[in-house]
Amino acid sequence: MFDAPLTIISEDALDAIHAQAMTILEEIGAEVVHAPAREMLAGLGQKVDGTRVRFDREFVMEQLKLAPSQVTVRGRNPERAVTFGGGTLCMLPPGGSPFVADRERGRRDGMYGDHVEVVKMTQATPLLGAGQSGACEAGDVPETSRHLDLDYSWIRFSDKPYVAYGTSGPRARDSVELAAISRGGRAAIEAEPAIIGIVNPNSPLVWDFLMVDAMWAWAEANQPIAMTPFLLAGATAPVSAAAGLTLQVAEALSGVAIAQAIRPGVGCFFGSFFSGVDMRSGGPSLGMPESVLGSLAGGQLARRYGLPFRGGGGLTSANALDAQAATESAMSLWGTYLSGCDLVLHAAGWLEGGLTCSFEKFALDLEVLRMFQSLRTGLEVDSEHLALETIREEGPGGIFLAADHTLEHFREWVFMSPLFRSQAYPTWTKQGSAETPEVATKEWKKLLESWEDPGLDDGIEAELQEFMAERKRELDE
Amino acid sequence: MFDAPLTIISEDALDAIHAQAMTILEEIGAEVVHAPAREMLAGLGQKVDGTRVRFDREFVMEQLKLAPSQVTVRGRNPERAVTFGGGTLCMLPPGGSPFVADRERGRRDGMYGDHVEVVKMTQATPLLGAGQSGACEAGDVPETSRHLDLDYSWIRFSDKPYVAYGTSGPRARDSVELAAISRGGRAAIEAEPAIIGIVNPNSPLVWDFLMVDAMWAWAEANQPIAMTPFLLAGATAPVSAAAGLTLQVAEALSGVAIAQAIRPGVGCFFGSFFSGVDMRSGGPSLGMPESVLGSLAGGQLARRYGLPFRGGGGLTSANALDAQAATESAMSLWGTYLSGCDLVLHAAGWLEGGLTCSFEKFALDLEVLRMFQSLRTGLEVDSEHLALETIREEGPGGIFLAADHTLEHFREWVFMSPLFRSQAYPTWTKQGSAETPEVATKEWKKLLESWEDPGLDDGIEAELQEFMAERKRELDE
Q1: A375 to chain B: nearest residue by CA?
Q2: How far is A135 from A96, CA to CA, in rounded Å?
Q3: Strand ranges across the sheet with B106-109
Q4: Which of B158, B174, B271, B272 is nearest to B223 (CA)?
Q5: pTM score over 0.90
Q6: Exposure class string for A195-211: b at 16+ Cβ within 10 A, else e
Q7: Which of A34, A312, B263, B415 gets the highest tally of CB atoms within 10 A of its CB?
Q8: Nearest residue of B to residue A328 by CA position?
Q9: Are A153 and A116 in contact (CB under 8 A)?
Q10: Contact across the interface for A421 and B317, Cβ inside 8 Å
Q11: Residue A433: pLDDT above 90?
């Protein structure tokens, strides 16, 4: 019951946002910098003028009907399949961080070994349901073929579904090839998708070549695509959440229209990444009220359109794992949680507005996700929980610490965490006054050590290596 | 619309909790360690056996009907009156902290001067609607008459309503006297209450003499009383939230029954302070999922009983202003916020499970409260916010940073905070890598400096001094 999404704006307000989004698409249109896509849209009766495409609202809404309301994605392990739609709350590690940081090795450029560690931690925790290729960058492998190594690391060290790295058509096509090999062929992943593609229009209202081409590759292969406008109020969008939402709808639904034209029925997520701009620095200010409201209204819109919803959790602009980081993260996660979100990117490890994948933040975020999981199970009211006889036995002035009922249930019912402790101040100081980051270091190390190799079929491994070797020869020369 | 309280348990579950609470009151009863109260209850037909009182459910529910669903409390300034009931979200500073801490003066025993600083900061911020006497202790004034000084400091340096210090009958009677003087006489505060009393039964199910006597004094004077069981799952309550809620109802409603017997119609808050126990230390673990669920269900029960709801915000067990403190605080505040709470104690400055009033935490919490205030205003969807013409002007690929619409509105519409900044990492390190506590020091100092003396009528001041001098002669000898 607790995971029922929150309603924060009225149907009238949703109507107004929708109507303006349609007006934007019809009268202003979007730049679609991809000739085959423009041709295809022209063929479907849309007005094309140079690179500008103006969309009929009827066409957009018809295309939307083709997109399924639920999408199942699975990696190598069918038991780890995730069905998105209706408030799945599938949590993911960060994506796209050029830097990594931990207390022992410092803040540094991300390398392939760091990426593998994030993959292993993601695999090791039941709190994250899927991965993200490029959780951090891998500065020690050639940029031209890096996407292969990053996608491969998810296939090799994890058996969960993952968001592919593809930031261009060729990369997306490679991600499809790798996923197909991992699952025994293209037919298998077309029947049951293995990966998720993320496309970000260049807000406002530009679909650039790289993104449309990537979308094309994924749609052709029936891999679901998250349409995620990156809207910064006051920079890539007007300075109000309402206006941002109209752009979000216009951009996301034009993406859906294009994807459905490529392959009717391909899964599409309604994506939200809405944030204010810190006018003092020009940077995105994450976890602020605008973002929370944007997430909640975004969730309402996704439900209206019958699409799975993609949001973000644990977002922060802070440069250290301090109270700012924790506050902003909690705010963004509450917004996402209450929005009825399905695919939650960046839910563990995000720091510095995503520039750094922090291992200590990863450990903290997981504990927060564990709290939300516990919240989500809700409050059980049955006779074992009501414990009338225990209350009777102890009576007025009693103490329940040693009651049978307590000893029987506290391990299961009481939330305890290595990071969230209640220690007397003198004990705490005597033990070294450890603050969160210090405790978190122990936790991510423990998590990393707990990774179990999911194994990989020798034949698949050989086929992956062969494909990658061939592509690297083509790309790195 | 956003402040609509969340429903997390069904009517059936509420029925079950209510039914068990009534069974507890009828069959187990409560210890009422206060002879006049027992006599009064016996006279009203309740079963008294030694110090044990067993309450009829019909009696309790009849008494409950006498309690108003809304209560207005005002201090010296009628403009600062607060009406509780229906989700007021009136925020208060902490209460009862023996220690205070700030980065410059360190962690130390609370003194009168510290208390005055908390009063001044509370007065200076519009985010806090009322005060708490004994926000920190005042180790430099005699314990026997300290309550007078602490209550006085609210009257002198603030004109907001406040929670009185009274932790016994005589102290509560003194709090009533001081409040009466400040408002021009007893009749004025009986007609429109000036202070709020907090009573905590000794959970489980003991109403001790001090608390019933304090309740008596406040009820007689028509000052509203918050009935707040302090329930620790696994210590003062069984280890489940459901069982804790049945005790909460039994204790709070027996308190309401007693208060209404003393003075029908006196305001009563349904209070919630529900927390797990950290089984590793035996201390309360605040801000954990059990507390959030307890707050949300508590809010549902308060609405069922038609009583204003008293909760807590910004609670944490952490010993430093670190990510743990911020996470736990945010969790507890979200629970309180979504519960439709009226009176939110400890909403700024609480650290170490309430043992310390931290000035830096005070500044952080205020910024978080400001975020919630901004959330609460919700998302405006009108033509100025929708900004269609601005979107048209910029068009695809535009940038809104210098748009007239942005320049006109960003100051008002974009949430910006000195504590929550988006700075590039190199800039941040060049400027000294300031983490939250450091920034917060500047902020509480700024707040303290911004305090404006609300003034106090010379006649009232003289009368207060005279009363206090007389009482101190009686108490301190």
Answers
A1: B289
A2: 6
A3: B106-109, B99-102, B356-358, B350-351
A4: B174
A5: yes
A6: bbbbbbbbbbbbbbebb
A7: A312
A8: B420
A9: yes
A10: yes
A11: yes
How far is residue A8's CA from residue B376's CA, in Å, rounded to a whole number? 10
Query: What's the CA gap between B240 and A388, in Å, rounded?
Result: 11
CA distance B312 to B336: 7
Please list, in sequence order, all residues whose beta carbon lies within 8 angstroms of the beta carbon of residue B245, skipping any fewer than 6 positions away: B17, B274, B294, B297, B298, B301
Nearest chain B Cα to A319, which residue?
A: B425
B279–A425 CB contact, under 8 Å: no
pLDDT in tens, A239-267: 999 999 999 999 999 999 999 999 999 99
> For position B388, what pLDDT does the model report?
98
User: What's the CA gap between B131 and B357, in Å, rounded?
Assistant: 14
Q: Output the CA–CA distances (angstroms, integers) from residue B21 to A396, B26, B159, in the order listed.
A: 13, 9, 39
The Cα–Cα gap between B324 and B316 comes to 8
Integer-rounded Cα Rg, in Å, for chain A is 23
pLDDT value for B4: 72
d(CA B46, CA B57): 10
Task: Give the whole-angstrom CA distance, residue A95 versus residue B413.
Answer: 30
Q: How far is A222 from chain B (nearest CA, A)?
A: 29
CB atoms within 10 A of CB A450: 12
| Most A-contacting residue of B12, B413, B422, B441 (CB-CB within 10 A), to test interface | B422
Question: Do the Cβ atoms of A241 and A276 come closer than 8 Å?
Answer: no
CA distances from B152 to A235, B112, B116, B459 (A): 51, 11, 10, 15
pLDDT digits (tens, 9 = 90+) for A200-218: 999 999 999 999 999 999 9
Mean pLDDT of chain A: 96
Residue B7: strand, helix, or coil: coil
Of B28, B241, B419, the CB nearest to A395: B28
Angstrom distance (rounded) from CA B42 to CA B25:
15
Tokens linked to A420: 């969230």
Read off the tokens for B107: 């962690």
Q: Min CA distance, B95 vs chain A (Å)?
A: 18
What is the distance between the alpha carbons of residues A185 and B265, in angstroms, rounded to a whole number?
75
> 3-state SS string over B364-423?
HHHHHHHHHHHHHHCCCCCHHHHCHHHHHHHCCCCCCCCCHHHHHHHHHHCCCCCCCCCC
Q: Which residues of chain B have pLDDT under 70?
A: 1-3
Distance separating the N- and C-terminal Cα atoms of chain B = 56
Residues in chain B within 8 Å Cβ distance of A416 = 278-280, 285
Pairing of strands A30-32, A52-54: antiparallel
Instruction: Give the separation between CA B464 and CA A103, rounded to whole angstroms.
Output: 56
Q: Which residue of A has its CA nearest to B369?
A: A289
In this prediction the ipTM stands at 0.97
Q: Distance (Å) from the C-alpha of residue A467 to the closest C-alpha of chain B?
A: 38
CB atoms within 10 A of CB A40: 17
Strand partners, A312: A345
Q: Which two tokens stand for residue A343?
A: 């695919």
- Give contacts of B27 with chain A, Cβ < 8 Å: 392
Contact A316, A351 (CB under 8 A): yes
Would the CB atoms of A246 and B324 count as touching at under 8 Å? no
Nearest Cα to Cα of residue A364 among A439, A285, A288: A439
